[in-house]
Amino acid sequence: KLDFHPSGRHFLQIPGPSPVPDRILRAMSLPTIDHRGPEFGALGLELLAKVKVIFKTTQPVIIYPASGTGAWEAALINTMSTGDRVLMFETGHFATLWEKMALRLGLEPEFLGLPGYEGWRAGVQANMIEDRLRKDTGHTIKAVCVVHNETSTGVTSNIPAVRRAIDAAGHPALLLVDTISGLACADYQHDAWGVDVTISGSQKGLMLPPGISFNALSDNAIAASKTSNLPKSFWAWDEILEANKNGYWPYTPNTNLLYGLNEALDMLLEEGLEQVIARHQRWAVGVRTAVEAWGLEVQCQEPDVYSPVLTGVVMPEGVDADAVRRLIYERFDLSLGMGLGKSKGKMFRIGHLGDCNDLTLIAALGGCEAGLKLSGVNLKGSGVLAALEYFSQNRPHHVN
Ligand code: PLP
């Protein structure tokens, strides 16, 4: 419970849902229209075309009225058959949940990973995937499934390296990638990276409320969907692709979230995707500068794959990260991400994505710094001042 009567805006600095801009809230507040009428069809065609730009694809993108978990399931059941082996990589909590889902769906997941807790502080090791695929001479592995931006740890894996690993092994497995928290924050290229199904969601870089998720497809994925035998109806791509040709869905879509999506796509395209990506990179450097000034560790131990979306801040031995987070919430009305799964209590996560700016981040870092001190954590210096200095000295990069 808050320590005081709330005033001003709550600081939602979890790595998704991210704050929804007023412009999107207004777009979503318009009256719901007939989802079989001409006005809706025009909207559907417009946003199905625009959303491809964000995924950097010319291929179909399916939009589901569901959270990201639904799109995970859709990707697997549309392409796989009972008992198919899928190779997954343990980067953190979300990779682990996806692996559990594969098991529940009747697939045979094989979970690669670094030993111990190491894998939760690093990205996907493409060499391990290549080694495993080389040994699979009978091609019993049907898909490689990896998380691009692991939201539980703050690690953005190198997807082109995974593609290269599959190709180097001469293996036909499909590549399925979860970029639920990476899209419209980190660089992502569905076509150029040779991804077969990209899974994403609305409540992160797209700045929307939860409730929409995506599957971007490839020809190979669509071909696989024609022979895959896992039961599917609501999630089946074929009927959706058919209805989408005219801008409609086979069922009632979430019309008002689609208004929001259309507005979000306009905002991102007006700014330019390269600029959006540069902005997130810069914020991430500012936040890591603060963590370093505090003398604390970032969860990710591989600088090449630091996430531009969020930063995991590791607590010193004996400090309960959840207690620190709770205090920060109660005293400063600031929400931070908790440590999930194996990292529970060991770290908290600062989201720096979507609709924020230098000063909202400085405020969030201010809440963290004060909360850490009040929790008795010995800080080396001021992260707030270090980040402010970084933001002052490094003007936003304009890509036009
Ligand atoms: N995958 C990743 C990387 C996520 O960050 C999340 C949610 O945070 C999910 C999957 C699950 O998505 P949802 O909670 O929208 O079902």
From TrEMBL:
What is a GO molecular function of this protein? L-serine-pyruvate transaminase activity
Residues annotated as carrying N6-(pyridoxal phosphate)lysine in the record are K204
Which co-factor is required? pyridoxal 5'-phosphate
Instruction: Tell me if Transferase is a UniProt keyword of this record.
Output: yes
Q: Which InterPro entries does UniProt cross-reference here?
A: Aminotrans_V_dom, PyrdxlP-dep_Trfase, PyrdxlP-dep_Trfase_major, PyrdxlP-dep_Trfase_small, SP_NH2Trfase/AEP_transaminase
What's the protein here called? Serine--glyoxylate aminotransferase
**Which UniProt keywords are present, listed alphabetically?**
Aminotransferase, Pyridoxal phosphate, Transferase
Q: What species is given as this protein's source?
A: Marinobacter psychrophilus
Question: Which Gene3D superfamilies does UniProt cross-reference here?
Answer: Aspartate Aminotransferase, domain 1 (3.90.1150.10), Type I PLP-dependent aspartate aminotransferase-like (Major domain) (3.40.640.10)
Which positions does UniProt annotate for substrate binding? Answer: R349
Tell me one GO biological process term: glycine biosynthetic process, by transamination of glyoxylate
Entry's family note: Belongs to the class-V pyridoxal-phosphate-dependent aminotransferase family.
The record places domain Aminotransferase class V at 49-284
